[in-house]
Design brief:
By secondary structure, this protein is α+β, with helices and mostly antiparallel strands. It contains 16 helices and ten strands. The chain has a single domain, classed as Cytochrome P450 (Cytochrome p450, Orthogonal Bundle), CATH 1.10.630. It comes from Streptomyces flavofungini.
Length: 431
């Protein structure tokens, strides 16, 4: 992809909603050259795709836009650079097997158990924000993305996995570097740095895999390791029999690489998406001061505000699917192997499902159920955890900063050019 093509793709991803509107009005599906996929933009069509995983496979759910430079590829080769099958790009029984330990680890009881920690860490971050904010050491305004949204979700996911808090910065940096390397056109030196972050993350995860295999604990990392290893589909099977005394055999390199891939995928989904949701929720509430005032005065509206923000401008704008056979969708005939982009963000603005869909309104009733967190077999297992982090965030921010507003003298809000973790690049606020 050349620079001109990247420029068009950036423009599209920073504001995809005009494209979505055209696609919903068009007959059938719309092919988008910049995405090399058919866009599924109407709510009913999105739901149909998500309910038919046998026809619309997740094998290509996320595909990078960039082929890294040779120097970056050489760094990645120091770790395991192979594309592995993980829960997000698996189908059928394999997907069910990979999803099961994640669903258990993010059960309502597990989420409830971690909520005191969420509140503790969120409160500490808000305290620091208040100290550094307007008039403090941070100057006249503060970037709430850097000071809060980029921090809380990583700490929470690290806690659930059972990671040492000291390792969380490596986890967060590695996640963001992964996205930058695979989806952004970077100078070669920045690509190399991003690749080094990815390798550091994978080595850290490999250490955890080996540790939890040897001595499982009561955490999600142990749950995933013990449930997913050994994998019948391991590309590097261990020919040796278990030890005569019944002890578990050592993990092979292939098994370790598979488990690292599972953990890496979970981390990317678990903290990047929630970071983005925090950013977009605050952005749209602050762009509508009357609604921010309303949620401050009536805290019981926080859940509705979260759902409206997810509907109006979800972090996960869409996932790819590939057809397993010829099929007709919305009157468009698709051959086997056709790529479609399932537009969760487009479905949230569908005029056929919502009144005034392009209006952000936390008071809308009744609220039709949205697909911002997916649907069916691949529905987000971490949706409740994400909602709870948003709930705690809004409860704290509305109580501590009722006068919160977008910084009058800050730079204009610029959205990140991505469809998988849509959020402000920075969000400068004052109070």
């Amino acid at each position: 992809m050349d620079q001109q093509q990247h420029a068009r793709l950036d423009e599209l991803m920073r504001d995809p909603y005009p494209l979505y509107a055209r696609a919903r009005r068009a007959e059938g599906l719309t092919f988008v050259p910049e995405l090399q996929a058919w866009l599924v933009a109407r709510d009913a069509d999105v739901r149909e795709v998500l309910r038919r995983p046998d026809v619309f496979s997740s094998a290509n759910a996320v595909r990078g836009d960039i082929v890294p430079a040779p120097a970056a590829l050489a760094v990645l080769a120091q770790g395991d650079g192979a594309r592995r099958r993980v829960v997000i790009n698996a189908d059928g029984p394999a997907h069910q097997r990979m999803r099961a330990p994640i669903a258990r680890g993010l059960s309502p009881a597990r989420v409830a158990a971690v909520l005191p920690y969420v509140t503790e860490r969120a409160t500490a971050l808000v305290d620091a924000l208040a100290e550094a904010g307007p008039g403090g050491r941070g100057g006249p305004h503060v970037d709430v993305m850097a000071a809060y949204a980029l921090r809380l979700p990583g700490q929470v996911v690290g806690r659930i996995l059972g990671f040492d808090p000291a390792d969380v910065p490596v986890v967060v940096r590695g996640g963001h570097s992964t996205e930058r390397l695979l989806f952004r056109p970077l100078p070669e030196d920045q690509q190399v740095t991003a690749a080094q972050d990815m390798v550091a993350l994978r080595r850290l995860l490999d250490d955890y895999v080996q540790d939890r295999h040897a001595a499982p604990r009561d955490d999600l990392c142990s749950e995933m390791v013990t449930s997913l290893a050994p994998d019948d589909g391991d590309p590097d099977p261990d020919p040796a029999d278990p030890d005569p005394d019944g002890a578990d055999p050592e993990l092979t390199l292939g098994q370790r690489a598979e488990l690292v891939a599972h953990l890496e995928n979970f981390l990317l989904a678990g903290h990047l998406t929630t970071t983005a949701l925090i950013g977009t929720t605050l952005l749209h509430l602050l762009r509508h001061p009357a609604q921010w005032k309303l949620v401050c005065e009536e805290p019981e509206r926080v859940p509705a505000a979260i759902e409206e923000a997810a509907r109006y401008d979800t972090a996960l704008q869409g996932f790819r699917r590939v057809t397993t056979r010829a099929v007709t969708l919305a009157g468009t005939e698709l051959p086997a192997g056709a790529e479609v982009l399932v537009g969760f963000g487009a479905a949230g603005r569908d005029e056929g499902r919502y009144e005034r869909p392009d209006v952000f309104d936390i008071t809308r009733t009744p609220v039709a159920r949205h697909v911002a967190f997916g649907l069916g077999a691949h529905g987000c297992p971490g949706a409740q955890l994400a909602r709870e982090q948003l709930r705690v965030t809004l409860a704290l921010f509305t109580r501590r900063f009722p006068g919160l507003r977008l910084a009058a003298d800050g730079p204009p809000v610029r959205m990140r050019p991505t469809l998988i973790h849509r959020a402000p690049e920075a969000l400068y606020v004052q109070w």
